[in-house]
Input
Amino acid sequence: MKRRTFTQSQIRYLRERAEEQYENMRGTRVYRNAEFLLYIVVVVLVALTIRSFIAEPTRVDGDSMIPTLVHNEDMLVEKMTYWFSDPLRGDIVICFYPGYTESCVKRVIGLPGETVAVKDGVITIDGEPIDESAYWKGEIIGDMDPVTVGAREVFVVGDNRNGSKDSRNPSVGCIPYAKLVGRVIAVVYPFSEYRTISRVTYP
Output
């Protein structure tokens, strides 16, 4: 069989076509890689935006909210409500105490201008006991002198009233609105314990 030979012009043509094809293939890979990286960046930015401004999961650390919330449960914290409205009594909130770097979960009990006290085992608001039977059926140990909640502040207490460090402690006090991260709306993990957290209404 006679071996085929190529002229210099044919070899040059084939080399140019091969290089052109290589560049086309390389361009396609680069484009696809860039498109994938852009997709990842967009997903990350969306996730960070949701986490920072809309909602995020937060883990319960400790027993201060028993029986409503249990240690190591994951809560879903919604952050937008307090952009448009003030916190209400009965809300379960994530907040930061003065000087703390880690957040705490507590229930809002006292609102701006109200006077909160603990007397004879119950919490009173402006001298009247409040019905907390929806989440607390015990008796609070120890009294607390009246505390008037300041403007744009809330008085927060853990549902486990005898096992919680909260606004009753002078080192904590009332919590400014600016220290409220958001409102707990559900327990999302473990999945078997999923439940929504509704705002309590008081008689």
Q: What stands out?
A: Helices lie at 8-54, 81-84. The radius of gyration is 30 Å. The mean pLDDT is 85. Residues 90 and 201 are 7 Å apart (CA to CA).
